[in-house]
Amino acid sequence: MILKSNGNTVASDVEFATTFFSQSKGLMFKKNVPNDYALVFVFDKPIKTSVHMLFVRFPIDVLFLDDSKRIIKATTLKPWLGTSSSEKIVKYIIEMKQHKISEHGLVEGEQLFFDVP
To answer: How is residue 25 annotated by DSSP?
Structure first.
């Protein structure tokens, strides 16, 4: 479960991408994801990285987080052609259904809470 600092649930159906393969695949080839779904990329160490939308068929919201799980960038990507760079060093990336950023009022600097398996 991913929670905001005020305790509100952002996502309850959470999957973790911790291997190179699972991170490379991301949401590719999925037709859609449930409304309460989030895919959390967990990197071994903080890095600069980017997200691509190759073979992703639907728009998504993406959060880039530092090692304290604070949002350092929030963006929406279009299917197939969208890309976004972290621009700063990140430890986590969260991919969710489009409109989750606005629905939950997620802003840069906000800290999220979740347990990494």
So the answer is: H
22 by DSSP, 3-state: which?
Answer: helix
How many contiguous H segments (helices) and E segments (strands) does the chain have? 2, 10
pLDDT in the model for residue 82: 86
The residue to which tokens 């903080």 are assigned: 46
Contact 110, 74 (CB under 8 A): no
C-alpha to C-alpha distance for 86 and 77, rounded to whole angstroms = 13
pLDDT digits (tens, 9 = 90+) for 17-26: 999 999 999 9
Collapsed DSSP state (helix, strand, coil) of residue 100: helix
Classified by CATH at the fold level, domain 2-111 comes out as Jelly Rolls (2.60.120)
Domains of the chain by residue range: 2-111
